[in-house]
Design goal:
By secondary structure, this protein is of the alpha+beta class. 36% of the residues lie in helices and 17% in strands. It is built from 8 helices and 11 strands. The strands form 2 sheets. Strands 3-4-2-1-5-6 form a 6-stranded mixed beta sheet. A 5-stranded mixed beta sheet has the order 7-8-9-10-11. A hairpin with a 2-residue loop joins strand 1 and strand 2.
């Protein structure tokens, strides 16, 4: 039986990895890092601790498919319309999970209150005695005053405590209602366990088949093809690559895992060795790379010779 390949879920020409084991396989075995982009719904603006899904660069997707290290799954085609029974089963299982969570939370809270009540029983009783003595003294002081309270007319209402405070068993102790217990909504990260998810007819193992189905169109230009070839050449030599937009290039090149090493180079890809470059761009590449303590590389793809060439820019003093 062939080993399971990591699944790249493609939607709108972007590849996502939702399975944690697949992410580990891609990073540890294939030097593919991607970018974690998931955030919590209530703190969507934070960008320090990101989670699933992992978004892959298009060059990473091309490389993985080319070397048969992963498969593409069309998310739109893999999610079939659920049947009525599937929907009912999903909602009933979700309601059962919420009910179980609420009962466990309530039991845990009542247990904590019981333990705290027994632990501080003597202190509570002494405080109640003090409050009772103070209350009797206050009644004696207020006995000389007469307070007139008018009776209510028919149809009038009092402004009593809010309804949530009226849940009382008559002995001064609150009576908890299970429907008022808070619960956590668990969002399932993958669709693999859903009965209406069937990737068998929406899985593509080659770039050609994915392109024919309109699921994946990269690379589509000479520059995109050059980026893929340059990326693969560096990957073959054991380097790790990441996006280089923040440092003025196409890629950042790391000598090892980015969690352990800083990048040594920024890389800009040219469509061919004959592509003209403005002198102002050369100056900008050199100064920018020096400013972030890196060297800047120019990578080109020679389609006739079928090889990749690199040129390094180093900032040097003149005169």
């Amino acid at each position: 039986m062939a080993p399971r390949l990591p699944q790249l879920h493609v939607s709108n020409q972007k590849a996502y990895v939702w399975n944690v084991s697949d992410i580990q396989t891609l990073r540890v075995e294939h030097h593919i890092c991607g970018i974690l982009s998931g955030t919590l719904p209530q703190v969507s603006q934070q960008n320090t601790f990101l989670g699933l899904p992992l978004v892959l660069l298009p060059e990473e997707v091309v490389l993985l498919l080319k070397h048969k290290l992963a498969v593409i799954v069309s998310d739109n085609d893999a999610h079939l319309p659920p049947s009525v029974s599937d929907v009912q089963s999903y909602h009933s299982s979700r309601a059962a999970a919420i009910s179980t969570q609420q009962h466990l939370t309530l039991d845990n809270e009542l247990r904590k209150r019981s333990l705290a009540s027994e632990k501080f029983k003597s202190q509570i009783e002494s405080r109640q005695l003090e409050k009772g003595a103070k209350g009797d003294k206050a009644k004696d002081q207020d006995a000389a005053f007469e307070v007139f309270v008018p009776s209510l007319s028919d149809g009038e209402k009092t402004t009593g405590p809010p309804p949530s405070l009226l849940i009382n068993n008559g002995k001064g102790k609150g009576k908890a209602r299970i429907e008022d217990v808070a619960y956590t909504i668990v969002i399932q990260p993958t669709s693999e366990d859903l009965p209406w998810f069937d990737p068998s007819a929406a899985t593509f193992r080659t770039l050609e088949s994915a392109k024919d189905a309109g699921v994946w169109n990269y690379p589509d230009t000479k520059l995109q093809e050059a980026r893929c070839e340059v990326f693969e050449d560096l990957w073959r030599t054991g380097h790790y690559m990441g996006g280089g937009l923040r440092f003025g290039g196409d890629f950042l090149i790391y000598p090892g895992d980015p969690l352990r090493y800083h990048s040594h180079f920024t890389l800009t890809v040219l469509p061919s060795p004959s592509t003209p470059i403005l002198p102002l761009d050369l100056v900008a590449y050199g100064r920018l790379a020096t400013g972030v303590k890196k060297a800047h590389l120019l990578g080109t793809w020679d389609e006739k010779a079928r090889k990749v060439d690199f040129f390094s820019l180093e900032w040097a003093a003149f005169g």
